[in-house]
Amino acid sequence: MKKQAVILAAGEGTRMKSALPKVLHRVAGIPLLNHVINHATQVGVEDLLVVVGHGAESVSRELPEKAKTVLQAEQKGTGHAVICAMDQLDPEALILILSGDAPLISAETLEKFIETHEKGNYAATVLSARLEDPTGYGRILRNEETCSLMGIIEEKDATPWQKSIQEINSGTYCFKGKALLDVLPKLSQDNVQQEYYLTDTLSLLKKDDLAVGVCCIDNAEEIMAVNTRVQLAQVEGIFRKRINHRHMMNGVTMLNPQNTYIDHDVVIGKDTVIEPGAMIECGTIIGENCHIGQNSRISDSFIESGVTITNSTITSSRVGEGTTIGPYAYLRPGSCIGKRVRIGDFVEVKNSIIGDDSRSAHLAYIGDAKIGKNVNVGCGVVFVNYDGKEKHQTTIGNNVFIGSNANLVAPVTIGDHAFVAAGSTITEDVPPEALAIARSRQSNKEEWNKEEQ
Predict the structure, then answer these.
(1) Domains assigned to the chain
(2) Residue 416 has pLDDT above 80, yes or no
(3) pLDDT(191) > 80
(4) By CB count within 10 A, which of 116, 175, 235, 280 is most buried?
């Protein structure tokens, strides 16, 4: 059966106190909304409809191409949000209703939920959980004798006794397409908030003698929605715990998982060790037997096996096998570092290729360069790549030695086996096997600073 999902993402989220739409706040590296979309996709949803309203343009820009948007110009409740999508709903489909601010619900739970819905042949099924403190949630009303669902009451409309019920509505539903399309026009605004409640569809379906089910899950944290910055931090903590647990079960050592921050789509090979404070972000891939030192930050990068990174920052770069980075090195976007390379303390590399077995041990800037194999870049070397208007490239051959405090003023090429003397400012090409010296001859002025007698 075809599966559709309607994801509710139109709310303003005033309690977040933010100019950013609530569903775009990030956890584990991506917006809240995108987690919900990913989980829906994992259970075979073919047609994604995202109901947008507040910040519609911003939300739409963050969506994957496969998602379609539906505009809810005025927010008149959850039922109204689904009504806005009616003309795109398939009467023959199974339709999931999901909340864009509830990213913790897993694909496994959604699979169980759909299975319950289909086995029971229900017209509609609601996902529920039990909370010690159910404040703020709609309550599940059950028949005392049969325990079957009678309806859902929103907290603002509930009596004191109903508020004592601990089983709550998660805001996640599963409908037969035809049943949902038949019942949506029957919704009314006859409630305290004068909104169209999606929960009312369940009572209306029961009045038509259609079966309505409940799937109560054991892990209540999965239905947690984000309405405040405090809840955002709580959800981030839950994601971090899940992600770190997965990597450790796959053979990664974390010295302090509570202080290790890894985005949801990161891949890490076995026998890699990660020290406290490391932040590994945004699609990074790390090979086997690596060592990621404390407080290192790696984003959108590919780190091959056997690499050691110490207290360094790497962004949108590639690091070859057996290379050591840091401490306090900075690889900026476009850096491609070869195998067994040494990038030492306070070395900055930007948009450059560095060949195998080369080294820059400390205090250098390498920008817009192409460096060959077995090259030594001395302390204090600067690749002078910017003339005030444009960037230029420096090309260095194999087996070259660049002495300390040399300035290489691009565009310039240094041939294989060449040697640049310390303190030289190179403005012209250096032939292979040549020694380049570009500094004035030393002159000593005798007794120049002698005090007058």
Answers:
(1) 3-223 (3.90.550.10), 229-436 (2.160.10.10)
(2) yes
(3) no
(4) 175
